Amino acid sequence: MIQRMDTPLFPLHVVLFPGSAMPLHVFETRYRALMERVLSDDRRFGVLAIRRGREVGGHADTFRIGTMAVVEQVQRAPDGSMAIIVTGHERFAVDVRLPDDPYPVGEVTILDEQPGEHPSKELPGARAAVNGTSASSHAFTATTWSRRPCPTTSSVHRSRSRPR
Fold first, then answer.
1. For the residues 27-35, what does the mean pLDDT come to?
2. pTM higher than 0.90, yes or no?
C-alpha cells in the first residue's frame, strides 16, 4: 500500500535504519517547532541523510530516500531543548521538498517494501564469509610481507646520499 503525505523532515549526517533506535538532541528553534507538531500529532517525522550542507543553521541538500521516525521518549530541558529517542520504521521517498516554514517539510510516499528475512537467519553465513575473507587476507598479507626486506633508516639514508 502506497501512502502519500506531507511530513516534517529532520536532515541529519547519519542514517536512521528501520528497526533501529537513535537519540537526538533538539535545540534549534525550528526543530523545536517541528517536535511540537510531531508530539501533538502521531509522533512521526522523516529522517533524511544530508548529502551536502550542515545539520545546524541552514538548508541542507538531502538524499531522496529516508526513514520514518517515531518518537518513543522525550525529556524536556528548562531551556526548551529536548532529548528524544526515536525508532526507525518504514522507508519513504521525497516527492516534493516544500519550502522550510520554519522547518523542512516534504510530500513523501511510503515505499511499499516487503520485509526481508530476519537477520539472525543470515548471520551464520555472513559471519563465515567475513571470517573466511579475513583469514585469507591475513594469510596473503603475512606471506607477501614476509618476502620483502624491511628498509632500515640507515639504508634509506644511504640510498639518498648516493650521487645520481
1. 94
2. no
